Amino acid sequence: QAEYKYLNKNTLNMFQEIYMSEWLDDGINKETMKEFNILYSTAKQSIIIPHFDINNNLIGIRQRCLLQEDIDNMGKYSPFMIGNEMYNHALSQNLYGLNVNKETIKRRKKVMIVESEKGVLQVNTMVGGENNFTVALCGCAKISDTQRKLLFDLGVQEVIIGLDRQYKEVGDEDYHSWSKHIREKIINPLLPYFKVCVVWDTEDLLGYKDSPTDRGKDVLLKL
User: Fold this and answer.
1) Residue 4, pLDDT score
2) Average pLDDT of span 116-120
């Protein structure tokens, strides 16, 4: 069973409802950002991504840094921190977007797992909330037992793996090590419980490090 420290939802009142062009230009509309409680920190100049458990409890707050200095220091995505307070949570104990998309996932009995929160929001913009069965790992290390159980308990039968393209050319060294990683850390833990498919780009529809959701609906459907 997943264990979280719940945060007070009033914590989100320190942020502003401002929707940044960085994401609007990247295939995420305002309606989606509202639905997923995406906010903005004028203090930190970063996009705020609240994380909720399946029952809509606030369990963590992450940020997408926009200032180059912050990106250099912390990476593009990091837990939000103000003063000595860090709003981090165990990413392996949850799946981002499950609180919003669980009914669609239950109804369709399938789920697509992407790497970052942005992928869930891009799909939401493409297909509308009632058709979005996407969740994010917020990383690519592995599927945890807790994450697998969350899906199993929803009655999921098919899992589509849609992680970022971590290779430059089909057949290069990265291509083989990435496929081995996905097989061992993502597919194998799921296989006894679900039918598993992988979105795998062999036609250069994506650029290096692109998510399958980065190039729009037509490319995603083709993949």
Assistant:
1) 78
2) 97
Global pTM value: 0.96
DSSP secondary-structure letter at 16? B
- Backbone dihedral region of 17: left (phi > 0), alpha (psi from -120 to 50 degrees) or beta? beta
Q: State which H helix or E strand residue 217 sits in.
A: helix 217-222
* Residue-wise pLDDT tens digits, 137-177: 998 889 999 999 999 999 999 999 999 999 999 999 999 99
List C-alpha distances in Å: 11 to 5, 14, 58, 81, 96: 14, 6, 9, 12, 19
One DSSP character per residue, 77-137 reads EEE-EETTEE----GGG--BTHHHHHHHHHHHTEEEEESSHHHHHHHHHHH-GGG--EEE-
Cα separation of 36 and 200, whole Å? 28
